[in-house]
Amino acid sequence: QVRLVESGGGSVQAGGSLRLSCAVSGYTYWRYCMGWFRQAPGKGREGVAIVDADGSKSYVDSVKGRFTISQDNGKNTLYLQMNSLKVEDTAMYYCAATGYWSSGSCYTILAGATAYLYYWGQGTQVTVSS
Prior knowledge:
- By secondary structure, the chain is mainly β.
- 3% of the residues lie in helices and 50% in strands.
- Strand 5 and strand 6 form a beta hairpin.
- The longest helix has 4 residues.
- It is globular and about 40 Å long.
């Protein structure tokens, strides 16, 4: 049984930093896309950052240069380092993963093809105040 559990959210002032973690268990696919998505109150879900099994990464334009996605396969953990946080980054952040992925770049998922994300965590809240 695949399980994704996020942690690391919290409240921070604008300009601050947070690191989100996603502990992954029961996941055995060796080719995959795994990433972070967020949903702010009253808004749709948005892809933030995604990484594939080879380490290729993609980011939504609004976080480029501020957020970094990484994975520690030895610890089965996905991370999202968030620096220079802005009020508009306030949202519930979710970790999500595909099943076996052999369809090329993961960017298509980040850009909206989220039906391929079979596994989701419960989310962790990030609140940025001015």
